[in-house]
What we know:
single chain, Outer Surface Protein A, domain 3, three-stranded antiparallel sheet, alpha+beta
Amino acid sequence: MDLDIIYAQNSQCPVRSIGDSLIIMAPSGDTTHSLEDIGAFIWNQLDGQRNLHQVLDAVLADYDTDAATAREDLTQFITQMDSAGIILKT
Length: 90
């Protein structure tokens, strides 16, 4: 995955905060996604300003994980959220 890409949260997706978790409804309105801990952290990093390399750096700074695992997890997260229309490339 190209880490220079910048993503933003899709503003058409309703988001509810429940404790430390986020519930996000897909734009189609028929699917919800529950984000906990690191997923919610990454979601909050996707502000349309930071590229994925910066998001990865933030994950590595805040979580006890190695770079390879963090990159793989970030790639899977972005792929799933992008295919669901929950995030958009800017």
